[in-house]
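Dear support,

I submitted the protein below through the web form. The confirmation email said the job was done, but the results page showed an empty box. After a refresh the structure appeared. I'm attaching both so you can tell me whether what I see now is the final result or a partial one.
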Amino acid sequence: MATARISKAQREREALEEFGRMLSALPDPRRKQGQRYPFESVIVIALMSMVCGAVDASGMEVWGELNEEWLSGFLDLPHGTPSQDVYLAVFAALKPEAFNAMFLAWMELLRGRLSAEGRHIAVDGKTSRRSFDLGKEQPAIHTVSAWLSEEGLVLGQFKTREKSNEITAIPELLKMIDLRGATVTVDALGCQTEIAEEIVAGGGDYLLAVKENQPTLHADILEAFEDAVRTPRSPMDLPLAVERWSDTTKGHGRIEERTLLVCRDLSWHTSNEIGRAHV
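What the results page shows now:
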């Protein structure tokens, strides 16, 4: 366990150092006169504070002050951490296109170094809070993201006009990602043949949730597993073979038992070859 933690810490430090090198190539939009805070330090602290929940320049200032001792271990802070006025001035002068190009290049570099083999990729859609504008009849921003769980890294992201468009956006998102050897999980909205086919074509395995939005499939699965655990009525009346795992945990004043049933014979529910081989 200790080796794994060290390895992860090393990867995080390497990623941060690489980001610093790429950020140093981004032109500082400020005037040279009167600069007290290095451009790279301002950007890194701003991004870190946003990841930790800061939503404005004031929050960035507070987060920086609380973490100044730690930040000074890898950032140049000759005058301490920046004030909110510094963040506002930097972001007002910074060209969004230039920063976006640099950030995407860094993400591509990290993505190229990470293999998805044996890893978990979670595909999910989210609606951004307060992103709608009633006056302009602008709906809330909805995005579909592919999240590499172990590394805490977004591998790709698609913007859609509404949640229902996830079904068409997910296959396009999956085409952008190296799925070889990875297990891809998708919620019930993404339980679609086209999505399963895209994952299999990319060399991955999938785990799709099934709910009432697929009524026939949902009913078939319930019936099959209920049949699998019942007592046979005669020696020839054999239910489907299932594998069973159970886990019992105790905490918060209660005992929880979780049971997992796995059925590998899928000939009962579909004639689709992909479903038979890979569900």
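Response: this is the final, complete result; the empty box was a page-load delay. The CA atoms of residues 107 and 113 lie 10 Å apart.
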